[in-house]
Amino acid sequence: MAIIVRLDVMLARRKMTSRELAQKIGISEQNLSLLKSGKVRGVRFETLSAICEALDCQPGDLLEHEKA
Amino acid sequence: MSKKPDIESIVRSAKSSAGLLQALLFLLLGVGIAAIVVAIESPNTIEELLIGKTVYEGAELSALQLSVLMVLTLSQLLLWGVAVNSTRMSFAQIASDRAAEAANSAARAAKYLWVGLAWSVLAQMPFSVIATWHYPVGERILAVELDWLHFAMLFVALIIGFYSRLIRLGAELWQDHKEIV
């Protein structure tokens, strides 16, 4: 997929674990792991907004488009 | 925004429905075993239950006739039992987040209901012949009766068929929903 998820980079910058983020935004660790590895078909605005709120960042910090 | 479903309560509800159907299954099994025991202990009682009072004085069913009638009756009970078990499995699979398998089980339950319905009509033919085999030649009966109960069952089987399709579509929707976090 041409969209790359940079969630792991942002988690490292904020020194936060996946478990902490999952608990903060109210989704399962399994789903967060799928999102981190880009193995999902889509992400809800609601989830994206909650992640941005928890990591104090913008959607553009988490997602990147790679030209094919 | 719609309220998020509480997974715990969905699982609990599916498990309790599966438990109820399990109880129904045991009830059907109990009825089957009781019928066999009564047939062995008191053949006259089961004869009266199955075919009512005979119209010919002194004409009694042989043990073989009664056995075949019991097999026909129990086969009907078995078909209902299989349909109930498929529905129970469907709920158990929903409880363990296997929606696609649950849809397959629901479709199987609908199929067994149709088979049960067809058998309840068709089995009347061998049933009536065997039940009247001891009558004088010329008085034996081959009968098929369609009453309002069969039409009610037809309607129920039709609705259940549509419900199983609904579950299949719901399972596909759920799969799509799961891939979006």
TrEMBL record, chain A:
<dbReference type="InterPro" id="IPR010982">
    <property type="entry name" value="Lambda_DNA-bd_dom_sf"/>
</dbReference>
<protein>
    <submittedName>
        <fullName>Transcriptional regulator, XRE family protein</fullName>
    </submittedName>
</protein>
<feature type="domain" description="HTH cro/C1-type">
    <location>
        <begin position="13"/>
        <end position="62"/>
    </location>
</feature>
<dbReference type="Pfam" id="PF13443">
    <property type="entry name" value="HTH_26"/>
</dbReference>
<dbReference type="InterPro" id="IPR001387">
    <property type="entry name" value="Cro/C1-type_HTH"/>
</dbReference>
<dbReference type="GO" id="GO:0003677">
    <property type="term" value="F:DNA binding"/>
</dbReference>
UniProtKB/TrEMBL annotation, chain B:
<feature type="transmembrane region" description="Helical">
    <location>
        <begin position="63"/>
        <end position="84"/>
    </location>
</feature>
<keyword id="KW-0472">Membrane</keyword>
<feature type="transmembrane region" description="Helical">
    <location>
        <begin position="112"/>
        <end position="136"/>
    </location>
</feature>
<keyword id="KW-0812">Transmembrane</keyword>
<keyword id="KW-1133">Transmembrane helix</keyword>
<protein>
    <recommendedName>
        <fullName>DUF2975 domain-containing protein</fullName>
    </recommendedName>
</protein>
<feature type="transmembrane region" description="Helical">
    <location>
        <begin position="148"/>
        <end position="167"/>
    </location>
</feature>
